[in-house]
Design goal:
about 150 residues, two-stranded antiparallel sheet, globular
Length: about 150
């Protein structure tokens, strides 16, 4: 089961061993993590292999928002993992942590989504499958309708 937390970023300090609430003895010795470092970690999660992302998703490192909504409840089947990572991107670069709340970053997250879907298609049916057309429809959907979810 994924661990979830509603602690605000200002209430936690990250250490190499995990999270430590501010005000505890361990927190006073732990250096605060900069927004730049959090952004770099989020980019890493977005670009690592899908199996590595899934391991992080199951561990749910804080202060990142690991919730997902299965492509906004659109039947996603083969694209579930791509949808989960896309949700991570929107929730952490966009309206959640707001690590890089720009249209350029939203497009980058959407482009990563398309790459993940294409990879899922290739793994299941080869590089030139009709699955890619379905991926293109999902991609066009997030490009045309996703701004509200990202900037919300």
């Amino acid at each position: 089961m994924k661990l979830r937390s509603t602690l605000a970023l200002s209430l936690v300090a990250l250490t190499g061993a995990g999270i430590v609430p501010l005000g505890t003895e361990a927190a006073s010795a732990a250096p605060a993590v900069s927004r730049a470092e959090l952004k770099a970690r989020a980019i890493g999660y977005m670009t690592e292999s899908m199996s590595a992302f899934q391991r992080h998703d199951n561990q749910a490192p804080q202060p990142f928002d690991w919730r997902d909504n299965a492509c906004s409840n659109v039947p996603d089947g083969i694209f579930k993992n791509a949808c989960d990572r896309h949700d991570f991107g929107y929730r952490n670069f966009g309206k959640g942590l707001r690590l890089d709340r720009t249209e350029a970053r939203r497009k980058w997250v959407d482009d990563q989504f398309k790459k993940d879907m294409y990879k899922a298609c290739e793994d299941a049916w080869g590089p030139n499958s009709l699955c890619r057309r379905r991926a293109d429809v999902y991609y066009q959907g997030v490009r045309s309708q996703g701004a509200g979810a990202f900037f919300g």
